[in-house]
Design brief:
Elements (H helix, E strand, L loop, with lengths): L9 H13 L8 H23 L13 H18 L4 H15 L9
Helix pairs in contact: 1-3, 2-3
């Protein structure tokens, strides 16, 4: 994973999404609408993964998609949902990693 510029933090992603949405009078959609959008984006990711790694080839008329693009679309909607509910994803992600570190400490074989 290489990029020309440093990767944004979750806080920067949330701020970028907020700045983009805040320029429109409509503002944030409701949490339920954003959940529907998230479901749509996850479906698009599933389709791309199925075409790339599953048994269902694309039709000749379908555009070539990108798993990375679909993941980024999901990240945008997750940040939108978090912002609309005043959730700090950096803080919540840190809690989640601590939970996994504790809960799954003996679950998997350590890489050597």
């Amino acid at each position: 994973m290489s990029s020309a510029s440093p990767s944004p933090t979750l806080a920067q992603i949330q701020a970028s999404v907020d700045a983009w949405i805040s320029q429109w009078d409509e503002g944030y959609f409701s949490p339920l609408s954003n959940l529907a959008r998230l479901t749509e984006e996850v479906g698009e990711l599933a389709r791309e993964v199925n075409h790339s790694h599953g048994d269902k080839p694309k039709k000749a008329c379908e555009r070539t998609g990108s798993i990375g693009e679909e993941l980024a679309d999901i990240l945008f909607v997750v940040a939108t949902l978090a912002n609309s509910l005043d959730i700090d994803l950096s803080e919540e992600f840190a809690k989640t990693m601590a939970k996994y570190d504790l809960r799954d400490a003996e679950r998997w074989t350590k890489a050597t």
